[in-house]
């Protein structure tokens, strides 16, 4: 006699009980599904919370690294001096703030420190040179020469902050230029995968956090601004203004045209990436072509004299020996 289903059930449990429990479970799942379907989801509120969290995370990442140095160099006294002289109200302060942002210094106290340094550095350099050459008489120089050295120190102190900012901008722009083609390739992949522009920028910034942190910072800020600025074009324009890079300006113009005329984003980014890679290859070929001219002087100075000594030295020694025996 073959076993039935009741043989596998626990003692006291019948088939009717099993059917009743399954029906109850099915009814419960249907009720939960219907309730979940009609549930009102606060998508906008969740999006705002996510943007706020991202904003706080970005602000923490950008400012926390320099917070220790900022605590060491308190800007309280600096700000009092700058405010008393009304240096923040000049017409050049806004342009200087933009340059400091291009150098990667976006904190609110960066402009105060720069203006204070530009004010103090001439007096500091002039005072040091005056102490060394006029009081300590470090070098016995004529009077006019000492005055020229002191005036030159004052001029160097006045120009040094601008030179530091300019060099920092150029180095940062060069790093961004080198990492931009790879970032565009990743943006093409993200665009072809169906991600939006702000999601693509956020993903690229996460991937380039180690290899090119300067480019990752700019793309992360742009992704954040695309999420909360009312005008998306302004976020892209801000990206071009924050960087001193032709590649970024080309990328921004491409994105603006794509947004205006509705052209495919992936195709335009692919063309732009190919152009940047070709430009990078041309730069490498240009450096390789300059190498023979650069190596000429070291070869003449360091290689040819030892070569002449090795080749002509024994013959000269034999001639000297022969003449001495005669």
From TrEMBL:
One of its GO terms (cellular component) is plasma membrane. It comes from Hypericibacter adhaerens. The chain crosses the membrane at residues 18-39, 115-135, 147-165, 291-317. It is a multi-pass membrane protein. This is Type II secretion system protein GspF domain-containing protein. It is found in: Cell membrane. The keyword Transmembrane applies. It comes from the Bacteria. The lineage of its organism: Bacteria, Pseudomonadati, Pseudomonadota, Alphaproteobacteria, Rhodospirillales. Residues 184-312 form the Type II secretion system protein GspF domain. Keywords: Cell membrane, Membrane, Transmembrane, Transmembrane helix.
